[in-house]
Amino acid sequence: MSTSMPFDRPGRFWRGNLHTHSDQSDGAFSPEETVGYYRDAGYDFVALTDHFRAEYGFPVTDTRPLRSLEFTTLLGAELHAPRTEAGPSWHIVAVGLPLDFLPPKPGESGPELARRARDAGAFIGMAHPSASLLTAADAESLDAAHAVEVYNALAAREDRGESWHLTDILLNRGRRLTAYAADDAHFQPQDPPGCAAWVHVRAASLDPDQLVAALKAGHFYSSTGPELYDVRLEGGRITVRCSPARKVLLTGGVPGAQVIQGDALTECSLPVEMFGNGYCRVTVEDATGGRAWTNPIHLRPAPSAGA
Predict the structure, then answer these.
(1) 157: number of Cβ within 10 Å
(2) Could you tell me where the beta strands, DSSP code E, fall in the chain?
(3) How far is the CA of 162 from the CAs of 8, 81, 133, 151, in angstroms?
(4) DSSP for 248-300?
(5) CA–CA dist 123, 178 (Å, integer)
(6) Cα separation, 302 vs 305, whole angstroms
(7) How do the residues of the chain divide into helix, strand and coil, expressed in percent and rounded to 5?
(8) Which residues does residue 178 pair with via DSSP β-bridges, in sequence order?
(9) DSSP state of 105
(10) Bridge partner list, 152
(11) What's the Rg (C-alpha) of the chain?
């Protein structure tokens, strides 16, 4: 009945950031300093996604020498090509790129570049749609995307950090997308600090290939603070276990929400009936305003190929 959720899958959750820049493009820190920042903050992995532009030499920053048994890196880049309805170029996160990924071809569009990156094995995300003023038509054309970057901590500085509205439009139109949060850290003096938004990816190990496969499968949740210990759908209700929260929300493909508020909530149950055969998602908010989000929970099976 429901999409596969990660909480009872084998392995454990690994904390990481999927959108990060170093001085190989417009970040302030070297790759070594950037990786060290996240490692020292208790993360398990980071993806350096430097801007894949001619002015920087089209970098896929090689962080493999910075891996250890306790901390790993994912290879990637932020891809660009002309153009969206409101902006001169696309911003596309690609995590799991090969080091020899070729620069954009003359005339290659953003959707075409994203398809090529996906074919090369990458997890594809729509970067900061609100900050980029992506339209529904833009987003629908990006058919290679696995996920939407629903929270971007750098874009929050300009009050355009959240992109759930566009995500809900796409989901209601039948796109089976997941949703992730990220820092988009550059570590420039005017920027917010890093480690403000992240993903918890469920995998058997820190092997980069396993992490990328788990991302593609949607075996993760996102957070700016709270932890989700278990979310499950049984008997027409979603049961949530989490770190202490002041609010638990169930929202989805119809207007309105199921809401439970309290003092240091750690477990609750909410009905899914109002969402019919569509989808819903859980949002947990803690006492400081930090939030955690599940991926969309689909209440009907995915259509079969060719359906």
Answers:
(1) 14
(2) 12-17, 45-48, 51-52, 72-79, 92-95, 123-126, 147-152, 178-182, 198-203, 220-223, 228-234, 237-252, 258-271, 279-285, 291-293, 297-298
(3) 28, 23, 11, 5
(4) EEEEESSS--EEEEEEEEEEEEEE-GGGTTSEEEEEEE-TTS-EEEPPPEESS
(5) 11
(6) 9
(7) 20, 35, 45
(8) 147
(9) P
(10) 182
(11) 19
pTM higher than 0.90: yes
Two structure tokens written together for 121:
């094995």
Tokens, residue 82: 């002309």
Please answer whether residues 153 and 167 qualify as being in contact, where contact means their C-beta atoms are separated by less than 8 angstroms.
no
Partnered with residue 124 across adjacent β-strands are 94
pLDDT of residue 300: 83
Place of tokens 């020292």: 40
Could you list the pLDDT tens digit for every one of the 307 residues in the chain? 335 799 999 999 999 999 999 999 999 999 999 999 999 999 999 999 999 999 999 999 999 999 999 999 999 999 999 999 999 999 999 999 999 999 999 999 999 999 999 999 999 999 999 999 999 999 999 999 999 999 999 999 999 999 999 999 999 999 999 999 999 999 999 999 999 999 999 999 999 999 999 999 999 999 999 999 999 999 999 999 999 999 999 999 999 999 999 999 999 999 999 999 999 999 999 999 999 999 999 998 766 544 3
Residues in the chain: 307
CA–CA separation, 204 and 214 (whole Å): 10
3-class SS of residue 170? helix
CB atoms within 10 A of CB 40: 10
